[in-house]
Amino acid sequence: MSLMVTSMALECSPEVPLGLEQARSMPMRGLLDRLGSGSQVLPWSAYLPERLQPPELRAARAKAASKPCSSASISQCGEAAKALSSGLPPPCMEDFQVSGRVWSLSQEAQGCRQVQQALEYAPSDQIRETLALEFHGHIVQACKCPHANHVLQKVILLLPASSSQFIIDELMAGQVAQVAQHKYGCRIIQRLVEQCHANQVQELVESLLKDTTGLSRHPYG
Questions:
Q1: Would the pLDDT of 91 be above 90?
Q2: Are 143 and 188 in contact (CB under 8 A)?
Q3: H or E segment and range at residue 124
């Protein structure tokens, strides 16, 4: 045990010059082998010292920092700057090509993150609203989806209150009481009440208050 501790101390000490073989001893060897496996860039590798980060990550940072802004992409420089300032690698621009696939992607674990990222880094509310409108006709289903509900919450939080009106309209025309008692749907009702104007949600709230007793006894209501 003492030999292991000594070895790790030597590896971490800045006073001891590390050769390639020394740096790859003990736990450090496993770490570097995993980072250099080439199978994928691990998200947590962005927090490592620069000399230990995968070459792909260092190249992406350098590219994002040197590339001039272009209006042809979805705020590429803006999103790269935000990502770099937060210490995270800049997202690939392919991740923002979600137009026409918002609903299908939102139903997937990875796809819903992709859509949320596109909404967050979009350069204007007009683009966000265009993406959000792809939920038209799917609101109730999205409210009950373990992945799409997160995207819908992001829409409500990022867009002006008026842009969420179509969400309210579809809920009022469908199953607002059932959605309010759903483990994911209740989050959407909460976000609407929090973010929208009182006159927008008045009818929705009054509809829910008709069954105050039932909602108050329900684990999600």
A1: no
A2: yes
A3: none
Question: How is residue 201 annotated by DSSP?
Answer: H
Q: Please give the pLDDT value at position 94.
A: 45
- Measured CA distances, 196 to 18, 142, 164 (Å): 59, 19, 8
CB atoms within 10 A of CB 216: 8
* Exposed/middle/buried for residue 81 (C-beta within 10 Å: 0-12, 13-18, 19+): middle
pTM over 0.85: no
| Angle subtended at Cα 117 by Cα 114 and Cα 121, rounded to the nearest 5 degrees | 145
Task: Tell me the C-alpha distance between 125 and 74, whole Å.
Answer: 12
Instruction: List, for residues 195-208, the tens digit of each pLDDT value.
Output: 999 999 999 889 88
One-letter identity of residue 98: V
Q: What is the largest CA-CA distance in the chain?
A: 73
Tell me what percent of the residues of the chain surpass a pLDDT of 90.
40
CB 160 within 8 A of CB 188: no
Q: CA 123, CA 128: separation in Å to the nearest integer? A: 8
Closest CA to 75 of 62, 86, 64: 64
* pLDDT, position 34: 60
Those residues with Cβ within 8 angstroms of residue 145's Cβ, 6 or more apart along the chain or in another chain? 106, 107, 184
CB neighbours of 170 closer than 8 A, spacing ≥ 6?
Answer: 136, 137, 139, 140
